[in-house]
Amino acid sequence: MTEQTAYPLPAFYFRVKFATTGDSADTAFQEVSGIGGQIDTEEITEGGENRFVHRLPKAVKYSNLVLKRGIADINSELVKWCLKVFAHGLDRGITPMTIMVELLDSNGQPARSWSFVNAWPVSWQVEAFSASKNEVAIEKLEFSYQYMSRES
After folding, report:
1. 17 φ/ψ angles, rounded to the nearest 5 degrees
2. Ramachandran sector of residue 122 (left: φ over 0; alpha: ψ -120 to 50; beta: rest)
3. Number of alpha helices (DSSP H) and beta strands (DSSP E) in the chain
4. What is the pTM of this model?
5. Closest CA to 146 of 82, 95, 98
């Protein structure tokens, strides 16, 4: 029995890659969430027969990919990309990129991976500061994307 089938994969050993930043120091995140999708449906009531409502598929809708980490250095390529998007708004075109999230096995090799194609930042927030807590200052980055695929 291989390691991948013997035990469930832990959720704490993962890696995030950005297609165009190329900076491995810029890929450490505390939390990844929002991996998923759903199919919207439309309800059609059958004429003359009130007992039946048909639910038909419409389109696939993906939730935003959310990444959390300690506040990064201003020289980070990812920070520069986000600042460029938010500073110029819609005056200039947004350059999307592919984001890859990899869940790693105990040898540090990808056991599962997801690719988020044509992603761009839609939200960038710094979580609240509090003098009563002893925690790292966290920034939360949220990305929309064209589609997601699970890689083998």
Report:
1. -125, 140
2. alpha
3. 2, 9
4. 0.81
5. 98
